[in-house]
Amino acid sequence: MSRGRLATRLRHQLPLLAWLVLVWILLWGTWSWANLISGLTVALAVTALLPLPPVTGGARLRPLPLVRFVGHFLADLVVSSAQVAWETVRPDRNRRGAIVAVQLRTDSDLLLTVISETLTLVPGSLVIELDREQQTIALHLLSVRDRADVDRQKAAVLAIEDRVVRAFGSAADVAALDRQPDQPERTSS
Amino acid sequence: MTDLDSAADVVAAVCLLLGALLCLTAGLGLVRFPDVLSRMHAGTKPQVLGVLLVMLGAAIRLHGWSASWMLLLVAAFQLVTAPVSAHMVSRIAHRRRHVRRDLLLVDELGGEPAELGGDEPADAH
Fold it and tell me: How far is CA B74 from CA A131, B21, B51, B77, in A?
């Protein structure tokens, strides 16, 4: 491997390296130079022995939308936890689930990961499949009342995508939000 | 100062109890929900918030930063890993058609994922 490629690889691995050192120091619980140096050694060994593909696309953080996203996320987490908890105590016999496919507008590995994680944690949804090429995400909805409810929950999914992209996405990702999806929503009925 | 301490104790106790209660409902959900996909809902939402609350309560109760950093890490990894494992389980369940279709109002995927050639289990409808 040439020097140039090594330097590029090191730069791509830099966020991961920093994260590993941070975790190491947090695990020890105290700050010291010995911890920093041993953490750095371990992190270098881990990234050298188990290399991960670099995260492409690059993300940026926008503070205000980030606060909005985190605030919505925490509120949704509390609401959905309460809902699911209530379902376990008082199961509704008439409760129906649903499997829906939602057409997302984002085309970035990192953002799709954040969106899927968020979707599994917050509203009444659970990610089953993610079609990377079609940008379609298949979700299981825990509890729906009728078709209007299904449509409302699908709109909530898009709202979450919107908040995630505005918080973490690049300018191109945000622009993609406003474009209408060119392919029709995939339904099989 | 003692007033502040006892107020912090009350907040910590409320967080711990609420968190434990949520984890209990998560366990209850695993038993009471009818199919795999619903059970995974119980395993993610109340479970994660329950763990977050327990961590918060413990962080308030345990003075000192070194313990709090560790609790922060636990919370962060819980947030990152719980959805991934739930997704893996539900994806396999869906592909193997372990889905109670009679409980579904809408199914926009139909019986589509046939790539793996899942066999119909006894509880499929």
Answer: 30, 19, 9, 5
Q: What backbone phi and psi angles, to 5 degrees, belong to A43?
A: -65, -40
The helix/strand/coil state of A139 is: strand
- A-chain CB neighbours of B81 within 8 Å are none
**Class (C level, CATH) for A63-178:** alpha beta
Considering only CB atoms, which chain A residues are within 8 Å of B46? 81, 84-85, 88
Nearest to B25 among A29, A85, A147 (CB): A85
> B105, A146: Cβ pair inside 8 Å?
yes
Q: Which tokens is B77 given? A: 């990894």
Q: Measure the CA–CA gap between A139 and A137, rounded to whole angstroms.
A: 6
Tell me the helix, strand and coil percentages in chain A, rounded to 5.
Answer: 60, 15, 30
Per-residue model confidence as pLDDT tens for chain B (125 residues): 578 888 888 988 999 999 998 888 888 888 888 788 788 888 788 888 888 899 888 888 887 777 788 888 888 888 888 888 888 888 888 888 777 776 777 777 765 444 444 444 444 44
* Number of Cβ within a 10 Å radius of residue A137: 24
The upper half-sphere exposure of residue A146, i.e. CA atoms within 13 Å in the direction of its Cβ, equals: 1
Q: Which of B37, B48, B110 sits opposite A126 (nearest CB)?
A: B37
Compute the residue count for chain B.
Answer: 125
Q: Indicate the domain borders of chain A.
A: 3-49, 63-178
